[in-house]
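User: Is it possible to get a 3D structure for a protein together with its bound compound? The compound here is glutamic acid. I've pasted both below.
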Amino acid sequence: MKKLFSSILFSLLIAVHLLHADEGMWIPMLLDQFNIDIMHREGFRLTAEDIYSINRASMKDAVVIFGGGCTAELISPDGLLITNHHCGYRSIQRHSTLEHDYLTNGFWAMSREEELPNPGLTVTFLKRMEDVTERILGKVNDTMSEEERDRVVREESRKIEQEATHGTGLKAVVKPFYMGNQYFLLVQKVYRDVRLVGAPPSAIGKFGGDTDNWMWPRHTGDFSLFRIYAGKDNEPAGYAADNQPYHPDYFFPISLKGVHPGDFTMIIGYPGSTYEYVPSYHLKMLVEDIYPKLIDIRTKKLDIINAGMNSDPKIRIQYAAKNAGLSNSWKCWKGEIRGLNKLNAIQKKQDYEYRFLQWTHEDPQRKSKYGALLAEYRKLYPEYSRYLLASDYINEVFFRYGAEAVNLAHYFTPLVEMTEQRADKDQINREVEALKSRCKSFFRDYNKPVDEKLFGAGVRMYVVNMPREFYPLALLSWQGKTGKYMEHVYGKTMFADSAKVFDLLDGFSAASVKKLQKDPAYALAVDVKRLYDDKIEPELRRLRVEKKRLDRLYMAAQLAFNKGKHLYPDANFTMRVTYGKIRGYEPRDAVDYRFQTTLNGVMEKDNPAIYDYHVPEKLKELYRNKDYGPYGEKGRLPVCFIATNHTTGGNSGSPVIDANGYLVGVNFDRAWEGVMSDLMFNPSQCRNISLDIRYALFLIDKYAGAGYLLREMKLIR
Ligand code: ARG
Ligand code: GLU
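Assistant: Yes, that's possible. Here is the predicted structure of the complex:
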């Protein structure tokens, strides 16, 4: 009896424990202290040292930051890297033309000589990390103003970074964790010669496109291959034809055994940002204010871009990456709103805050330190939201994600200033050359009718959604004649016309400045920038400083309030480890999603009438012949799988590792019902989506005929 009881109790404990085991993005250096026992209980067979060690080769030596925002991992002793197709997308696109359309047809180097260099693309290794909290926080005190505190932290960080890298060629960065309650030094090594080795056609690498993006069941072969090159000494070097393939300290063996429900999986990668500890006001701001407005404007813009892309294959290439970028967050925001509402997240936070407040009132010292925090947040958020929205809206309409010609014009302001201030000739020439190269890549991917429509839609929405005090001058003076104004800008501006812009740059002189200043797109860019600098930026800065102080205190308070639980720090684009299990989920009543998709599902989606669902002829043939070789399982070819690992943007391309430390997949997405995990994790709905590594190997081998690449990998059968 007693035995039965204790085993029930034990399984209850396990069940409770399992519910929470999957949430969290953990610091690799501290796994030994906080996580390894749980990981072992969940099935992991190796040690914390095997993941992160500074004394010997470990998994961390095989995981890199790819470019500026993705993860990639080494899969051979000769520097071969695998990441997502969407992470390599820019590089693939830059090598693509109508004649050599690698986006559409794929690219496979058949020898090392054919691998393509990508100027500007880097990969970053983590050499080591170190807790430097005492050194940093030892320099500050509570009487300092936030600005002063910031300055002191910055200075001390620079000092630590310099000491860590002095004379080594390494890079170092000190980053805040737990909102500035803890600091870590990260020492990195950056390689700069990274070449494209292979990419499937978009009809595989982006199969399902933005229709299936953020969704399960998924059938995307989202991977691409690159290779790191180094100088003769295996150290970083700029591109040179005779650089050697880089030999890493560690690379992942690849398992062909696949995954099954309940299997342990672990992901090492670079999650960008999460917001798990924000107050309810933050959720309210996003769900009720910011997201709905941004969703509306992007819906408009995507309609315009999609129409353009569907009308002309050239526009399809030109706007493919822009479209993917715009659509990606647009769809994620929609999912987040839905997920948060379903979780009743605002109410949950409010309940938590109520308990928190009670706790602060239990103790006079706590009360004086933390008692007013939530009231201060409550005062801050309406203002913060107002300026944040204005800033986002300006970006959406005029700058980074909006009217392209106006954005381009904006890049000419430094040249005008230099000329007016009579800077020396060399400096001006250098600026002119830099602008020429910017314009070259700009006009390569530019279509005036599309841009004109983007501008028109953006301005119309701006007028409706922004208060008048945030109108740029030009809009005020043309008020009531918005339509005319838009014709005026795109009728007259030179920035929508490559020949005119290059004319100006080629013959640039002091007189050209007058011409620039008379240009309506330029004038608008200057107006908007002035509005931003005068009315928005100073307020936003002030509010951010204030918010930062509250965030730091609230985080410290929450750490104390949750004493006994180990809270993970929010993601901050540093290396993290997350672990979970292979598991399906129930997205809605009576619907069960299984954990795995197969090539059969690709064929089910095949539809020549829908661009996102064209299946290449060759893939159909391989399917008909069922020639899956060692990559298939029970007559089917696995394509993607889901698991309960807690991931976010930046984790794309991360290795999915099994209990033995072998690579079984490449992470590339999350499922729609769970994308609110950036703000609140729901263990029953949050799933990360990975490419089954066997699908990648099958494609390399059987589809591309690049099986020679498999010979440098270590395959575990
Ligand atoms: N949702 C994934 C991520 O956040 C994939 C995005 C790329 N794919 C796409 N169809 N836009 O990056
Ligand atoms: N696709 C995302 C990325 O590029 C990963 C998906 C997510 O946000 O979890 O990092």
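The chain is about 50% helix and 15% strand. Residues 1-19 have pLDDT under 50 and may be disordered.
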